[in-house]
């Protein structure tokens, strides 16, 4: 398995502009997280604790992704790109979950 991971790392580095993709994803993740947190704080009085927990999850997962990206490399961790992929997917899913929860709660209060 370790050989396969190293092979895929090398293959991805040669095939795709990995650094540019990571930089773009980091910028997008930061922008989406900030927008969601601002949206939460704008409507904070009308939202439940569950929305607060969802928003905290966004902050934690985005921080984990950015921290992992900054502190590790393919030389230090063999499965670097795989872990980044999973953490990034989890962060994006959490952002979507939190945004949907906030919008549903706001919609339900208007009824």
Give the beta-strand count: 0
| First-last Cα distance | 54 Å
Low-pLDDT stretches: none
**What do the pLDDT scores average to?**
90
Radius of gyration: 17 Å
The amount of helix comes to over 70%
Structural class: mainly alpha
Number of helices: 4
The ordered string of helix (H) and strand (E) elements is HHHH
Multimeric organization: single chain
Tell the overall outline.
elongated
- Percent range for β-strand residues: under 5%
Number of domains: 1
Largest sheet: none
Structural description of this entry:
Helices cover 84% and strands 0% of the residues. The protein has one domain. Helix 2 runs antiparallel to helix 3, helix 2 packs parallel to helix 4 (80-110) and helix 3 runs antiparallel to helix 4. It starts with a helix and ends with a helix. With 111 residues, it is mainly alpha-helical.
Summarize the structure.
The chain is an all-alpha fold. It has one domain (2-110). The chain has helices at residues 2-15, 18-42, 49-71, 80-110.
Chart the SSEs and their pairings.
Elements: H1 2-15, H2 18-42, H3 49-71, H4 80-110
Helix pairs in contact: 2-3, 2-4, 3-4
Features:
111 residues; mainly alpha; 4 helices
């Amino acid at each position: 398995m370790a050989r396969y991971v190293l092979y895929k790392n090398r293959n991805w580095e040669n095939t795709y502009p990995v650094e540019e993709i990571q930089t773009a994803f980091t910028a997008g993740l930061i922008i989406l997280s900030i927008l969601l947190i601002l949206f939460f704080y704008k409507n904070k009085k009308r939202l439940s604790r569950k929305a607060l927990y969802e928003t905290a999850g966004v902050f934690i997962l985005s921080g984990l992704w950015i921290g992992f990206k900054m502190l590790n490399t393919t030389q230090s961790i063999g499965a670097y790109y795989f872990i980044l992929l999973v953490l990034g997917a989890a962060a994006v899913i959490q952002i979507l979950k939190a945004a949907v929860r906030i919008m549903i709660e706001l919609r339900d209060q208007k009824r």
